[in-house]
Amino acid sequence: MTFPSCPQCQSEYTYSDGVMLLCPDCAHEWHADADEDEAAAVVKDAYGTLLQDGDTVTLIKDLKLKGSSTVLKVGTKAKGIRLQPDAADGHDIDCRIEGMGAMKLKSEFVKKA
Fold it and tell me: Can you give the residue ranges of the Protein YjdM N-terminal domain (predicted)?
């Protein structure tokens, strides 16, 4: 039986574990019945937790706002996020932070609250 290549690293050495397919090279997991577009649209936080629209996330690092002297501190919460997995600039989360307004964040700097 042949399995599809890994959608993340294109490794051909994938294997099945029940309903999940696994890649031994990059440790990526995906559903066997999911198409590649659906697998590519997954957004995870800095710790690998799957994020969904409407989640609340917390910053894990101080972030300086571009074009401003303002800094978003560690622990700042963004409620009701909207995911943008196809964003060309890597900012895959649209959110509103109380007291700051609307902004975009990279999922690598947040954790699910």
Answer: 2-30
Both tokens assigned to 62: 């101080």
pLDDT tens digit sequence for 19-74: 888 989 988 888 777 654 454 568 899 999 999 999 999 999 999 998 889 999 99
Q: Can you list the alpha helix ranges (DSSP code H) found in 2-112? A: 36-40
CB 43 within 8 A of CB 85: yes
* CA angle centred on 51, ends 82 and 23, rounded to 5°: 135
The reported pTM is 0.64
- Rg of the chain in Å (alpha carbons): 17
Q: Determine phi and psi for 37, rounding to 5 degrees.
A: -65, -40
